[in-house]
Amino acid sequence: MAQAMPDEIMMDAALIEDLAEVAKDAAFLQGIVMRTPELCNSSKLVVYMPFTLFPTPVPKAAYLQSLAVQTCFNTLVDKISQDQDFLQEALASTIEVDDFTARLFRIHQQILKEGRAQSIVLGLNRSDYMLDQGEDGSLALKQIEINTIAAGLSGRASRMPDVHRHILKVAGKLEVSQRILDNNANNGLVGAIAKARELYGSERAVVMFLVEENQRNIFDQRCLENELWKRNIPTIRKHFNNVSETGTLDQDKKLFVDGHEVAVVYFRIGYMPQNYISEQAWDARLLMERSLAVKCPDISTHLVGTKKVQQELARPGVLERFFPDQPRVVEQIRATFAGLYTLDMGPEGDKTVAMALADPDRFVLKPQREGGGNNFYGSEICRVLQGAKGSKERTAYILMDKIHPTPVQNYLLRHDGPLKVSNCLSELGVFGAYVRHGKDMVMNECVGHLLRTKSSEHEDGGVSAGVAMLDNPLLV
Ligand code: ADP
Ligand code: MG
Fold first, then answer.
1. Ligand positioned closest to the Cα atom of 339
2. Residue 2 falls inside a structural domain
């Protein structure tokens, strides 16, 4: 049963139609826009991004819990990235069958062999959660995944509060509008990028955004870029092929691209096999990893974000390895873990297969991929596992308990669809930012949040795909 819209927000249909028009204009005024698929490399024509007409109730305790655990996750990601034995063991079975992860892993190994050129580490991540409803109605914050590369939407998330505030005021809900939280995710991430560049220590050097050929989502990146420029930090936008064509390292391993010295490489690409269209793209990745530029993320931190590492972390005793004297931190992190199961060859993996086949609707099957739309649900889990269950192909996946958030009604606004009320599920993301210089953590912060809401008929899919809508939490 879906939860009806909270009484404080409920209103009649005619008013909703009017509000939707007000809402669209508010979204444009805040720059909640994206390019169209047909004109993805031009801003001649833009459309508003999908968003919800109203904020979604989120229990205050869960929200605060997600913020409080973020700096622990930052530390954890950073510690794992420095633990080569752990990464090697955790990914051993995966890289036997998953060529993409194997290729990333080979770069990681090569860098370790050569020695890292740069001791400044910049981590910008987003930990995503859903609230799992127990049979007794209780809600538990459960992590879906942590993104250690190209964690997007900070720009839009920071502008969404004003959109909902305005809608609610026009709707005569002043009190509710005042409860919409501020969100400083974008400036927080920029603060960390600026800090890393300052430590790099060159007035001339730029922040390079490494971006896709398809630039539909450019505005989210522009929010970061323009904020950097506001702080007098120059940025450039480049593709893998620009780096392979013009990128060089000087004798100090300083990275130059198109004549610019690069202080920070910020990856908004590089997490999908399709991003590496040629051998030259892989060579470019290696060149950047070898360089003195600060990489966000570096190759090791990128690997920490794999689903396999997430599953290994849920094993008994593993968090203790990273926080040997901090049982409170271990407890705080572990409380957010859903059931995660290995599909490695052997009796434990066999048990996982049997469990999944017996009750597929209880689980989600995940390959080592990012970017949405890759997971398997229900009968598809059986199809994949029936095919792979006896072979090591199955180790390309992990199995996870399916989280069941409480559906809540909301109106979904999208430029290519009718306004309609839907039963919706929400995913809360929390942005973390840290900078380490050698052994010193010089910054470790939770900088903001992102609420995405989708109609419950969709199992998977992101905002750019038009499935998930931008939203704001309304603490209750
Ligand atoms: P990706 O790296 O592709 O973003 P995710 O692990 O975030 O992979 O999964 C994509 C989407 O699938 C999530 O945004 C969420 O909607 C859904 N999803 C993932 N894991 C679960 C789960 N355990 N229970 C319910 N839904 C899930
Ligand atoms: Mg995700």
1. 1
2. no
Instruction: Note the pLDDT of residue 8.
Output: 67
Q: Give the per-residue pLDDT at 1.
A: 60
Cβ–Cβ under 8 Å, residues 49 and 156: yes
Alpha carbon 394 to its chain centroid, in Å, reads 25
Q: Show the tokens assigned to 242.
A: 């620009």
Q: What are the tens digits of pLDDT across the range 371-402?
A: 888 999 999 999 999 998 889 999 999 999 99
Beta strands in 294-419 (DSSP E): 294-296, 340-341, 363-367, 376-377, 397-401, 408-413
Contacts of 48 (CB under 8 A, 6+ apart): 24, 27, 28, 32, 33, 34, 413, 415
Domain count along the chain: 2
Q: How far is the CA of 267 from the centre of ligand 2 (A)?
A: 17
Q: Is there a single domain that holds both residue 428 and residue 398?
A: no
311 and 353 share a domain?
Answer: no
Q: Are residues 27 and 84 in the same domain?
A: yes
Full domain range(s) for residue 252: 7-338+403-475
Distance 449 CA to ligand 1 centre (A): 17
Q: What integer pLDDT is reported at residue 75 of this predicted model?
A: 98
The answer on 291 and 203 residing in a single domain is: yes
Instruction: Compute, in angstroms, the gap from residue 366 CA to the centroid of ligand 1.
Output: 8
User: What is the rounded distance in angstroms from the CA atom of residue 448 to the CA atom of residue 440?
Assistant: 23
Q: Are 117 and 291 in contact (CB under 8 A)?
A: yes
The chain-wide mean pLDDT, for the chain, equals 96
- Encode pLDDT of 192-222 as tens digits: 999 999 999 999 999 999 999 999 999 999 9
Show which of 402, 424, 454 is a domain's final residue: 402
- The 10s digit of each residue's pLDDT in 84-103 is 999 999 999 999 999 999 99
Ligand 1 closest atom vs CA 307 = 6
Domain CATH for 385: 3.30.1490.50
Q: Are residues 296 and 383 in the same domain?
A: no
Residue of the CA atom closest to atom 11 of ligand 1:
460
State residue 247's pLDDT score.
98
